[in-house]
Amino acid sequence: MRVMLAPMEGVTDHHMRDILTRIGGYDRCVTEFLRVTDQLYPARVFLKFCPELETGGRTPAGTRVYVQLLGTNPQALADNACRAVAMGAPGIDLNFGCPAKTVNRHGGGSSLLRTPAVVGQIVKAVRDAVEPSTPVTAKIRLGFDDSKLLLETADLIEQAGANELCVHARTRNDGYKPPAYWCQVHAVRQRLTIPVIVNGEIWTVQNAQQACSESDCSDIMLGRGALARPLLANEINAHRANRDVAGLPWTDVLKLLEALLSTAQDFPAKYAGNRTKQWLTYLRLYYPAAVTLFDQIKRIREVDEIKAAIEKHKRLAAGTTVD
User: Fold this and answer.
1) Is the bond preceding 179 in cis, omega lying within 30 degrees of 0?
2) Contact (CB, 8 A) for 250 and 289
3) How far apart are the C-alpha atoms of 82 and 67, rounded to whole Å?
4) Which phi-psi region, left, alpha or beta, contains residue 54 (left: φ > 0; alpha: ψ -120 to 50)?
5) Which candidate, 81, 52, 75, 84, places its Cα nearest to that of 121?
6) What is the structure's pLDDT at 321?
7) Could you list the active site residues?
8) DSSP alpha helices (H): ranges in the chain?
9) Is 38 in contact with 76 (CB distance < 8 Å)?
């Protein structure tokens, strides 16, 4: 089994990729999408989305990072893919799954699932443009309104030369509402010869087992579950190897939150603490103490004040005296 970290817009930036891959368990990451219209982006834009290009396309922990592109113009996407590869990207991922209304209104993301032929043209243009040794992967949903075009879309992606396909087991209209329909990925897995990765609603080891069983996929992609339970990838790998793995205590999670907060200087001052608060909204699904900490900092804007609140909370969690 391989475990991938999902590209989540506004969430899994290079800071989060660094933190989660240091914990371990991931075979690959994918960047947030770089939206391509008709321009060839300069190197500085790629480095903003993927600073790992300066270190061989890998996180500090050594995990490969594919650059994800989103758009509708096959030639522009191909040109930008070539630039990303020339800069060191170990692979290119094409986004046909983003459900955001703004993206879909402009014909990108999951809106393309209504026109499988265009999806195939984009994949082929990128596949033909980059070196054969460079993996080109695609991420889709079951469909836009329904899954009637799922198999046609999957066929065209494979015929266009994609190396792998990741399927988020919901339609665009489903959004992120549970459940994920892992069983519908089974037909794709049976039909294609390339690896198929199942994604969506995997929060626990048991979810991972069920997703693989229902989809017949051996590879998974973790999204929100990885944020709620930072050790999840390791837990899944350990279970598959019949090993036990100790849970990640809340005191260690607090150190991870501090590590994320230390990157706040990369954001405008009034939003500097937002990523830390955002992560807490996921962590509180698994760690009850995260509810308390979130309530304590949710209205604080100053990074130093957030840092002090976390430090105080950490001492309380460790059972030490707080002045």
Assistant:
1) yes
2) yes
3) 11
4) alpha
5) 75
6) 41
7) 98
8) 14-23, 43-49, 74-86, 101-105, 116-129, 150-159, 185-191, 205-215, 224-228, 232-240, 250-261, 274-283, 288-297, 303-317
9) yes
What type of residue is 171? T
Q: Which tokens belong to 244?
A: 């036990």
Q: How far is 148 from 153, CA to CA, in rounded Å? A: 10
Residue numbers in the chain where pLDDT is lower than 50: 321-323
CA dist 25 to 91, 250, 262, Å? Answer: 19, 19, 23
The DSSP call for residue 24 is -
pLDDT value of position 320: 53
Whether 82 contacts 127, CB under 8 Å? no
In 3D space, the residue among 148, 89, 146, 77 whose CA is nearest the CA of residue 118 turns out to be 77
Whether the predicted model's global pTM rises above the 0.85 cut: yes
Q: From its phi and psi, is residue 196 left (phi > 0), alpha (psi between -120 and 50) or beta?
A: beta
pLDDT value for 241: 93
Q: How large is the C-alpha radius of gyration of the chain?
A: 20
d(C-alpha 123, C-alpha 140), whole Å: 12
Q: Which domains, from first to last, does the chain contain?
A: 3-240 (3.20.20.70), 250-317 (1.20.225)
Over the stretch 218-263, which tens digit does the pLDDT of each residue have? 999 999 999 999 999 999 999 999 998 888 999 999 999 999 999 9
Cα separation values, 313 from 91, 196, 282, 298, 304, Å: 41, 43, 18, 14, 14
Q: Rounded distance, CA 16 to CA 256, Å?
A: 10
Beta 196-199 vs 34-36: how paired, if at all? unpaired
